[in-house]
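Slack export, channel: ligand-projects

TW: morning all. Re-posting the request from yesterday since it got buried. We need the structure predicted with the small molecule present, not the apo form. The ligand is adenosine-5'-triphosphate; the SMILES is in the block with the sequence. No rush, but it would help planning for next week.
GE: picking it up
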Amino acid sequence: MVLKSLSGRFLILTIIFVMLAEVLIFVPSVSRFRADYLQERLERSRIAVLSVLATPDGMLMEHLEKELLDSANVLHIVLHRDEMQELILDSPMPGMADAYFDLRGVSPWRLIMDACGTLATDRDRVIRVLGEPVKGAGLLIEVSLEEAPLRMAMIDYGWRILQLSLVISVITACLLFVTVRRFMVRPIEHLVRQIKSYEEAPEDVRRIIRPRASVTEIREAEVALNSMETRLSQSLRQKERLAALGAAVSKISHDLRNILTTTQLLVDRMEYSEDPQVRRSAPKLVNSISRAVNLCESTLAFGKAEERHPNITNVSLNVLFNDVAEAERLVIGEAPVKIRVADVGGMQVDADRDHLFRVISNLVRNGRQVLMETTDGGTISLGAVEVAGGWHITVHDTGPGLPEKAIDNIFKPFSGSARKGGTGLGLAISAELIAAHGGRLELVENSADGAAFRIWLPCVTEMN
Ligand SMILES: Nc1ncnc2c1ncn2[C@@H]1O[C@H](COP(=O)(O)OP(=O)(O)OP(=O)(O)O)[C@@H](O)[C@H]1O
Ligand SMILES: [Mg+2]
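GE: finished. pasting the full token output, ligand included:
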């Protein structure tokens, strides 16, 4: 749980990184410690050498010699002078020297390697060290000493550094943890709480986030969220108002349709009136009323229009085209309007059969209605081709084309109708049904020679 939270991860990572940095410091520090240790031995030996040189004959009593070697903490001291080696102080050696180190001009990398060698060895070695006790003084001294005390001192020093590193890394990690919690985690938690609270009741404007973070990036996120929530709440309110309006229109349409249906029955009787003028106007009245009933019914249907999701199957276009054509031919009767179905072979598309039937019927019906209004009639052609990623289905007619005023709004409900008695819903519903398939309905041709609508249907299997 802690590991998954932002602050928990930050805490652990900080400890790891600080420890890593400490280790990188640790190795050079221990090697420096070793170099200083050996240098100190050389300096102490120099004092011993100077003491011996101060005696008149360069000879010392044995116990004094031992005391000087003990105080320098070495086994023997050799003074290098003018290419000559002069043994100044000596004590019985436990054996030959096992390693030799020259401290003059030694590189840091060499120092690290030698320090690692000292720590890694498990024998009690005797080492010989050559160096200048005082830099540039011209005095060169060589000493022999046991390595074990040096190793112990190095381990002791290393251990103390490690403990210190641990304390430093814990303190640093805690400080960073508190800072990150204060400046990052808390504002992010606040942001998440606000989003959740808004999600519960988006219509409640009091829940819209009020930017308050001091960190620029989080504040910017809060400001963006604030403007998004404000716009969302506004459009929700607008949608609610429109829904209420829609419900009212539906109720009015419902009652109006009932009133009109009754009127229709009364008007029917007018056909039998004795007054010829009344009889003449009766059919026109019947027509007008049935158009009004039609409009009411369409409005009611659209109000309910919660279309179910398309149930996509393989639909044979040949069968579908012929079904549509057959239904329309019944209405065409003897009128000079033809419906031509192109040979599409066994082409199958991914679509909801009922939805596609309704869409193609709507397009064919529009063409048929236009053509039947003209004296010469014309032809409606249905065709389809397979294209990359889907199919194009085209409905073309040789009518006069769409009137200019209808073009801009043909896909908007109730807005695109330029036909007497049309509700302007056919194309809007068709476009919606095709969009639910992930496709598109477009007017691709419109001239005095005719109009063509094209449906693009995507291939669902390819999308998956
Ligand atoms: N093939 C076409 N040729 C000429 N005009 C067309 C054609 N198709 C559509 N239109 C025009 O576009 C308008 C909108 O068509 P749409 O099908 O949306 O509504 P409608 O036919 O008026 O009413 P309904 O809701 O009963 O279908 C029509 O009124 C007609 O003027
Ligand atoms: Mg129509």
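GE: first-pass observations. The domain at 238-304 is CATH 1.10.287 (Helix Hairpins). The CA atoms of residues 56 and 381 lie 132 Å apart.
TW: perfect, thank you
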